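Private note to self, pasted from the team thread so I don't lose it. Backbone tokens:
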């Protein structure tokens, strides 16, 4: 296999050694845009041969050309992950072109805001079939090959920080991602004996054109999303890519069935006490002074 040069615009900020993924072939579904593209670019920069798959040729082709222009090795194929026959053909194509497959980022998804009483069967289906069925079809097609050839492999599934809590107005996505989390943990146990690791990443809000177009339609909404995140900021696609390449690499061989949340603490805010963080420090100074006064009044033990 030809090796990709390990230089590029992000080389200086990367926490990884430049050959982290050398010799690996990584398939990224939805790799032409957003978080998938950021991961594909980073994986290529770290030495992987990356293979991108999504429905729209102009999406993955543009990303492939971008990676190649930086000296990386990339290829792609138009694939609808909802169709098991297309997924099977995709995996066969990766083996035909690249000769092997080492890891998959199951990243393709659809999503939109809607009241659940307004959902149509088609709308529900489109999201759940892409998120849950697509992840299963790709995982199974890759794993069948790994199991029959007795080679190890790594699956990294993209869920979200609402996979545990559900999400009002995002019902199909919440249901699909919760299913992917269950799939991640089930397969991690079932396929560990074949040397297949299965992990997940649960991102919080990270600005990408796709996610923002569907979920954050105006700047007021973006401000309130940011306000809700204890870290006080949105995520960065490069942070997602760092985590994804780490999980796709051989650096964490004993980690399987894990879901790493990267959301600046967003999902843990949960109950209304989390909102106390917006109170001024004067509030906490007064609480402390009150505790101290009460302690001073108590008789010595
Ligand atoms: P995005 O750019 O819209 O990514 C979605 C990708 O999925 C697109 O590349 C799209 O490409 C592909 N896709 C959609 N339907 C497909 C199908 N049937 N078959 C194959 N590919 C399909 O949005 P993103 O923000 O990068 O999201 C990436 C992942 O992160 C998703 O799993 C999303 O749920 C998750 N996530 C994102 C955020 C965030 O704030 N950005 C937060 C939590 C989780 P085509 O249109 O070419 O098919």
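Design output:
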């Amino acid at each position: 296999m030809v090796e990709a040069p390990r230089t590029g615009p992000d080389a200086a900020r990367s926490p990884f050694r430049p050959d982290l993924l050398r010799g690996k072939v990584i398939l990224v579904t939805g790799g032409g845009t957003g978080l998938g593209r950021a991961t594909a670019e980073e994986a290529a920069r770290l030495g992987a041969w990356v293979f991108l798959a999504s429905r729209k040729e102009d999406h993955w082709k543009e990303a492939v050309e971008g990676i190649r222009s930086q000296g990386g090795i990339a290829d792609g194929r138009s694939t609808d992950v909802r169709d098991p026959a297309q997924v099977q053909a995709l995996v066969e194509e990766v083996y035909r072109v690249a000769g092997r497959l080492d890891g998959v980022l199951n990243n393709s998804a659809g999503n939109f805001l809607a009241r659940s009483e307004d959902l149509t069967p088609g709308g529900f289906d489109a999201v759940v079939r892409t998120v849950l069925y697509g992840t299963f079809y790709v995982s199974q097609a890759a794993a069948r090959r790994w199991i029959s050839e007795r080679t190890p492999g790594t699956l990294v599934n993209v869920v979200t920080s609402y996979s545990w809590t559900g999400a009002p107005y995002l019902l199909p996505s919440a249901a699909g991602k919760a299913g992917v989390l269950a799939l991640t943990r089930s397969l991690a146990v079932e396929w560990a004996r074949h040397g297949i690791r299965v992990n997940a990443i649960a991102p919080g809000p990270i600005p990408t054109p796709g996610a923002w177009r569907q979920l954050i339609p105006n700047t007021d909404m973006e401000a309130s999303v940011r306000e809700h995140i204890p870290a006080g900021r949105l995520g960065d696609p490069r942070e997602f890519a760092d985590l994804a390449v780490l999980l796709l690499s051989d650096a964490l061989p004993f980690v399987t069935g894990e879901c790493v949340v990267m959301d600046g603490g967003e999902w843990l805010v949960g109950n209304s006490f989390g909102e106390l963080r917006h109170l001024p420090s004067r509030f906490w100074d007064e609480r402390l002074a009150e505790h101290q006064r009460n302690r001073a009044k108590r008789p010595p033990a």
